């Protein structure tokens, strides 16, 4: 019900009083309520752990991710603390994952995250079944010396599969491509995107520019991409809003019409942390470049970027959620980039360099 300790105490008192009980004969206080609620939660957690230990996964992947959250249960409500969510996944009973705990940690360092994760593995008796690690590609996770993944591997005393988040790997890739074309943006907000957002309401959106593709093999990729995205967007579980917008914009820039028809979302966040903005803004900037009166050099750069996004990046992104497909997808992407060298050698070098680094190949 989401009741606070004070509310529960008041509810208990009112219930006893309504039943004709003498409140003086009962120990009723907020602290008593809190202790009993904590004890009840502890017993429930022990029951869950006991049930889990009877049928644990034979092989499991360990997942963890940290986030600053507001403290609603501690001694100083309202403050924020570094919190770590830790779970395991593995067949047959837990293909979607089992949450082990959400401890508060002192810092977001790899050491702190590894220690908290290891404590939970030991508490749940899972140290022997972990075969893979799933994590974001931040330095605190993937550092070669003090990263959480490396430290966990050392503590578990065996080699483990590293299943780094594919979205974070691709985030690095598209960021490098943008920087290669337009230079490094040093301010928190991208000035290109800020200008576009400011003039958005002045643009006419009924005649967007689309990519003109001549090479035969690129037209084949275009057809494949359109088929993939149309199938994804027509599925019973379409992607979330920003992913869907990227897929729909890609279809439009390739000269196709999304299943829902063509409609335009208002430009959103422009700060650097919103890396998806690079894709969404870049496609819209290209499609309305004539109205924006960009110079020829900028238009060419946007065309090169959209060719990369439309034919290669978006399809790879939309199929990146399955870690098992990552090796094959990476190899296919590298093959495509090597072939793309004939079209854009400079962009090819940047893509190949970053994908090779982030994939560990």
Write the layout of secondary structure elements.
Elements: H1 5-18, H2 30-54, E1 60-70, E2 80-90, E3 94-101, E4 104-105, H3 110-124, E5 130-135, H4 139-142, H5 148-156, E6 161-164, H6 166-182, H7 191-199, H8 216-233, H9 241-253, H10 276-287, H11 289-292, H12 296-318, H13 326-340, H14 345-359
Parallel strand pairs: 1-5, 5-6
Antiparallel strand pairs: 1-2, 2-3, 2-4
The quaternary structure here is single chain
Number of strands: 6
Major pleated sheet? 6 strands, mixed
What pattern of helices and strands is seen along the backbone? HHEEEEHEHHEHHHHHHHHH
Radius of gyration: 26 Å
Strand content: 5-15%
Count of individual domains = 3
What best-fitting shape do the alpha-carbon axes yield?
globular
- The total of helices stands at 14
Structural class of the secondary structure composition? alpha/beta
Helix content: 40-55%
Unreliable parts:
none
Termini separation (Å)?
Answer: 50 Å
Average pLDDT figure: 87
Provide structural commentary.
With 361 residues, this protein is α/β, with parallel strands linked by helices. The chain has three domains: 5-52; 57-164, 2-Layer Sandwich (Nucleotidyltransferase, domain 5), CATH 3.30.420.10; 167-359, no CATH class. It contains 14 helices and six strands. Strands 1, 2, 3, 4, 5 and 6 form a six-stranded mixed sheet that branches. Strand 2 (80-90) and strand 3 form a beta hairpin. It is globular and about 85 Å long.
């Amino acid at each position: 019900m989401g009741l606070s300790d004070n509310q529960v105490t008041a509810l208990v008192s009112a219930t006893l009083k309504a039943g004709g009980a003498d409140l003086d004969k009962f120990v009723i206080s907020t602290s008593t309520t809190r202790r009993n609620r904590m004890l009840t939660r502890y017993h429930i957690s022990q029951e869950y752990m006991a049930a889990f230990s009877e049928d644990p996964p034979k092989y499991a992947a360990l997942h963890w991710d940290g986030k600053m959250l507001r403290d609603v249960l501690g001694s100083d409500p309202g403050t924020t603390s570094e919190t770590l969510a830790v779970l395991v996944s593995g067949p047959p009973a837990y293909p979607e994952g089992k949450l082990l705990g959400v401890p508060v940690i002192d810092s977001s360092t790899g050491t702190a995250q590894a220690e908290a994760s290891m404590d939970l593995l030991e508490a749940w008796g899972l140290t022997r079944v972990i075969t893979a690690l799933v994590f974001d590609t931040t330095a605190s996770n993937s550092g070669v010396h003090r990263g959480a993944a490396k430290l966990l591997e050392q503590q578990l005393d065996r080699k483990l599969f590293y299943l780094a988040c594919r979205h974070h790997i691709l985030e690095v890739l598209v960021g490098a491509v943008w920087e290669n074309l337009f230079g490094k943006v040093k301010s928190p907000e991208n000035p290109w995107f800020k200008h576009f957002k400011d003039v958005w309401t002045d643009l006419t959106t009924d005649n967007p520019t689309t990519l003109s593709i001549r090479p035969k093999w690129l037209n084949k990729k275009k057809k494949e991409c359109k088929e993939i995205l149309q199938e994804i967007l027509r599925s019973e579980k379409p992607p979330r809003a920003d992913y869907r917008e990227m897929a729909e914009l890609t279809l439009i820039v390739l000269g196709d019409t999304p299943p829902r028809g063509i409609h335009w979302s208002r430009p959103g966040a422009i700060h650097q942390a919103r890396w998806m903005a690079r894709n969404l803004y870049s496609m819209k900037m290209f499609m309305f470049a004539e109205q924006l009166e960009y110079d020829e050099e900028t238009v060419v750069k946007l065309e090169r970027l959209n060719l990369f996004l439309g034919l290669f990046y978006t399809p790879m992104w939309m199929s990146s959620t399955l870690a098992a497909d990552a090796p094959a997808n990476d190899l296919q992407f590298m093959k495509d980039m090597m072939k793309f060298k004939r079209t854009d050698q400079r962009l090819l070098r940047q893509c190949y360099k970053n994908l090779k680094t982030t994939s560990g190949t």
